[in-house]
Amino acid sequence: MARKTAHLISHSHWDREWYMPYESHHYLLTELMNSLLDTLARDERYRHFHLDGQTIILEDYLQVHPEKRELLEKYITDGRIAIGPWYVLQDEFLTSSEANVRNLLIGHQDAKRYGTICKIGYFPDSFGNMGQAPQLLKQADIHVAAFGRGVKPTGFDNQVADYESSEYESPYSEMYWEAPDGSKVLGILFANWYSNGNEVPVDPEEAKKFWDKKLSDAEKYASTGELLFMNGCDHQPVQSDLGDALEAARKLYPDVDFVHSDFTQYMEVLQRKVPSHLVTITGELRSQHTDGWGTLVNTASARIYLKQLNQLGQTLLERGAEPLAALAALTGAKAYPHELLTYAWKTLMQNHPHDSICGCSVDEVHREMVGRFDKSRHMTQAIVQESLQAIAGQIDTAHNFSWKADSIPFAVFNTAGRERSGTVSVELIVAKRYFKEGPNPAALAEQMGLMPLDPEKGQLLDDRGQAIAAKVEDLGASFGYELPKDKFRQPYMARKIRLTFEAPAVPALGYRSFAWHPCADDSGQAAPSALKVLENGMANEHVSVTFREDGAYSLTNLKNGHTFHEFGIFESCGDIGNEYVFRQPEGDIALTTRGVPAKITLVENEAYRITYEIVHDWAIPAGADESLESERNAMVPFRRRQAQRSKQMVPLRIKTQISLENSAQGLSVSTSFDNQAKDHRLRVLFPTGLESATHYADSIFEAAQRNNVPAAEWINPSNAQHQHAFISLNDEANGLTIANKGLNEYEVLRDSKNTIAVTLLRAVGELGDWGVFPTPEAQCLGEQTVEYAVFPHCGDLLKSGAYEQAYGFQIPWFHIQTEIQFGSLPTTYAPVSWQGEGLALSAFKLSEHEDLIVRWYNLQHRSTKLDVELHVPASAAYRSDVLERRHDSLALYGGKLSLEAGKAEIVTLALSDSLKNKNSH
């Protein structure tokens, strides 16, 4: 009989914050690390510790004990402490594609400074795993993933049956995991959790009981005699007597080799012994083949305000600071701010651990998160503004002969992956007076406010001299200041106007310039608008919408005449669950606004946009009844609770603004409400009427195709799922895509109309999980505003291009005022142009080696051609990866290159400029 090896890997799964505030966990972390360093020094038998796969632990510890850096470096270099590959252990589904990449990239960069990186894809407690993880890991030279959730490893009651059984996804804790592109890694499931080797007894009698059970449990799942035991758990102190415990085990079980191991050693042995018939699991691991109660997917709707702040922060970094800073650097205007961007990313990612961004911690944790979001955003906005100023300073506005000396030019930037048009609001300074600090400038303010200014006489022109219809608002006089690079701050009073207009055909990753003429001339009339107000709705050349008395609306795709009905109905139901899990009370019937009279008002009718406001004065139950609190305090499991909704009602006024822009192919919607109810969920409904068994949801580097109806094992009445930018459903002729900003939970209802329900609010009062942790702030009382968009289309998500509309909805416009000046840049410009069917752009930045990094991902499950044309100097082009390294050289002729993007492939280019000579490795 072959010998078995028990690999014990010591660790402590370190939730940075969770059921206690961050600093309480921080205090315990210092104790853990001090104990670890002491144990490593005292006992040579304690040979290794796995530092939970996240380098932020080092930062947090050294913040308190900087004097321990040298000792830490020694143990890391000696291989006794394993660090990386991540910066934090993130929630994969609630952080963006690029945030997952930055997490891996920055984790590698941090670990590299200590000389070693643990090359294992470590996902011990992620609430489900992204389908493209194997591809990301393989691109980072990681060939093994270890994870704790997402896969049903065995049959009923832990019975290991024939591996072809359909009752489970893998009969073993070992399996292959394949991404949509075909990348494959060896997957290790913590089938007995990541604490199955925790607190090993030293006493022989206790050790015998312990190991009889533990060895048997591990053998139920293992495909080889290499048995994995994780010696640790959440915030587990170091087991300092482990050496004695292992010696005791060796005496009790002479036929088992007990080794204080590490992942590298374990994987090297395991990979040589795994059987050839391991199951291959594919794509997303979301516990699809379970009863549906343990997926923790409803963390996507816990504290939605956090998700909104995160979406804003990620978008400003990925589609603001990085591309604008890259453009400024490529044009020679300003050096790329590597360190500042890393700081902004790290500050943001400190909110990305699964117990943080999931909103499933105590209130103090999430209060501190708001401050971190603000800190990251403020730094990001500073980078954006500096980059815009640097670029604007080089735009040649003097040679535009349709503009005059008194014209006020400005540039509008589009950092999306495709050319787009859209409504932009720009504030312009039309007069400015500086003043010295000290005296009250009230007189100057009055003087500026009384200046004659007739907006009706002005005119907006593009850089071709074409007049553009714009709404002009006189904002009066206001205070401002400048911070010159070579002198003291310069306060001023300024007279401002606001221009709102449609910016047409702004190139992808570029800008287009416009100018305000204070006095109109004979430049011509603006092009006519396609917008028109209907008797009870509105239309442009793409869509029309009509409203019912209850505020619901019908939306017609004018390309083929198909109409969707009853959109925009709101639904409220009870929720007696917790931050992790939604649970509707037994027998609770959801309330809706169907048939509730609404006040419908036309509030905007301009050439660029029409907006209707719909107000529902509604009433919903004030919360759950009194029994819920007693059930919580008694720790009654949420599935056994009997609480119902209260009989007391509270008002809920829902104010919705539905806008249609001149060139838009769908509707933009903003819904605001003052939530005064507890223990409930609010959703907006879109009954598609489309016949399809599947739909697409924007996920990490893919539009994941998911089944509308869950697997047979699923008994949870709810089938909510994660999304990022959109959810899309189509039949052969028609499709519907719902985009959003930070609304990460949706459900395709199991009704006759394939209704898409998007969660706008989930209000609960407890953390849940293993104790009683009240979270009154998770009720999300007070004012809330959410944004989403509705795009009808012909056919599917990809052929219609609806995915580009949905991605563009999340990306803000950027703009900056400039002057009539000479410069090296044209008035309309983009550094790169590209073509590729079904491709989505995700990154445009510089690497630490100053290569231009451009990344796309193929949403199709077939290969496609990518053509790129550069409008910046480049001497060489390379295939790259998520770690931004150079690989195969690509043919670059006249600034043009072509390559094939494989099915579902994440494609990264690295472009170098020989003129700067910064890129040799």
UniProtKB/TrEMBL annotation:
User: Which Pfam families would you find in this protein's record?
Assistant: Alpha-mann_mid, Glyco_hydro38C2, Glyco_hydro_38, Glyco_hydro_38C, Glyco_hydro_38N
Query: Which residues does the UniProt record annotate as the domain Glycoside hydrolase family 38 central?
Result: 299-373
Q: Look up the signal peptide feature and give its range.
A: none
Q: What is this protein called?
A: Alpha-mannosidase
